[in-house]
Design brief:
The protein contains 5 helices and no strands. α1 runs antiparallel to α5, α2 packs antiparallel against α3 and α3 runs antiparallel to α5.
């Protein structure tokens, strides 16, 4: 009975985290809209907020989750779940590092030319983050639903 309650708790936490990730996607889309409207400070502030939420989510949910069953990923690398977990971990990890670096180097500057030089890195970061999000949704479906 205890293991079922723990599994149910993990599933609830994973679902809340999934919803949070989708909310962060909304924040990022709004931030892109701000950038298109040349409201660079709002864009940067919203991106900073999304990155902070992402780091917190990683530290509280995704990191510990990976550590709890990461050994099975290494011991069974040909397993579909392991491959998706590994791809999710790599794309998500790189996107967190790049996101932290981008907002950390921005420092709420008013000079937009500095940010414009980093536009290719921003595009790579958002592509990796969306890829990690899609892989995370797929992983959630594999772990907690009967859809796959």
């Amino acid at each position: 009975m205890f293991s079922y309650q723990v599994l149910l708790w993990y599933q609830q936490v994973a679902f809340i985290n999934l919803i949070l990730q989708i909310v962060m996607l909304g924040m990022i889309l709004i931030a892109v809209w701000f950038r298109l409207k040349a409201s660079f400070r709002r864009h940067g502030t919203l991106m900073l907020s999304a990155v902070i939420l992402h780091v917190i989510s990683f530290l509280l949910v995704m990191g510990p989750s990976f550590l709890s069953f990461g050994s099975s990923v290494i011991s069974q690398p040909s397993n579909r779940r392991s491959a998706i977990t590994l791809a999710h971990t790599i794309t998500g990890g790189i996107s967190i590092v790049l996101g932290v670096w981008l907002v950390g180097s921005w420092h709420l500057q008013s000079i937009t030319q500095i940010c414009m030089k980093r536009k290719p890195i921003m595009r790579i970061t958002i592509t990796l983050w969306i890829t990690a999000l899609l892989l995370g949704i797929l992983l959630y479906m594999l772990l907690y639903t009967t859809l796959l």
